[in-house]
Prior knowledge:
Blueprint: H1 35-46, H2 82-85, E1 90-93, E2 96-98, E3 107-111, E4 114-118, H3 126-136, E5 144-148, H4 154-157, H5 160-167, E6 170-174, H6 175-183, E7 195-197, E8 201-205, E9 208-214, E10 223-231, E11 234-240, H7 256-277, E12 281-283, H8 292-301, H9 313-334
Amino acid sequence: MSSRRPWCPSLIPAFSLVVGLGGASDISHHTADTVEAHVAAAKVAAGTEHMALLGLCDVPEPARAPQQPQTLPPERQGPPDRSEWHAEPVKVFDNLYFVGQTDYSAWAVTTSAGIILIDTLWDYSVEDEVVGGLTKLGLDPTAIRYVLVSHGHADHAGGAKYLQDRFGARVIMSAADWDLLGRDASPWPKPRRDLTATDGQKLTLGDTTLTLYLTPGHTPGTISTLIPVKDGGKSHLVAEWGGTGFNFTLTPDKPQRYWFKTYSKSAERFREIVTKAGADALISNHTSLDGSTTKLAALARRRPGDPHPYVIGNDGVKRYLTVADECARAGLLRLK
């Protein structure tokens, strides 16, 4: 049973497989500008790997009114029971660890000078999953130096204040999403405004450098990240698409059309970035969207010489972003 999720609803696979994946990552450049054509292109790009993401192509629910406060139903005002959300931590690469929940992901990047944490889960779960998870893995949570928040929603930023206060970790967000938190009147604990990410910024800690890109759409200042990792000493490059759903943060000065266009442009741009960088692995901040629900279990069964479940090749990463792009284009056309 999943925990509360008003911000980033699960995406349920809704389409059957369309075979023939040749050139799928570049298909948007050749797609007719109709809802049906973009959905069909997304199906081709999804293949068998990205079926959960393909749920973006479902007809979206009506958008929330601008600046509407986020509330939970009365029966869910308190934290959900631990049995609904707890997940065990997992070593995914030599220097990348999953310390998330059943539905929401947080990732710890270990370096020679400390830990960079990507996303912080909800405020109710951060101590159990992040602090407790790192400890179970033999890592020291006091070594968290940076907390990179992909976007300013409570399911990803909710634990940032706790880590800021307890460990003195520096919290990094985009300027637009720091502003988003400043306008958020809901009662979850917000971190103090700290470091501001810029587009293309290199975040270096010890022997590891992450590259941050501003990819607005899901929120005004969503951050997507490239993370160098190793698997048995072999180098790979992980891409994280920082915000996925179409439950956009609406503002009076920017209609819903703006957000679909912005999301599509960001997905297309980040696809170009991962193409040039050669990213060959993919993670998400929701376990359903990168297949973590099955991939984490597969890691436990992995034998020496077996392929790594998160390494899907550069084409696989590009196709993921093509699905996001094509579904956004379809969503835009549905507004006409």
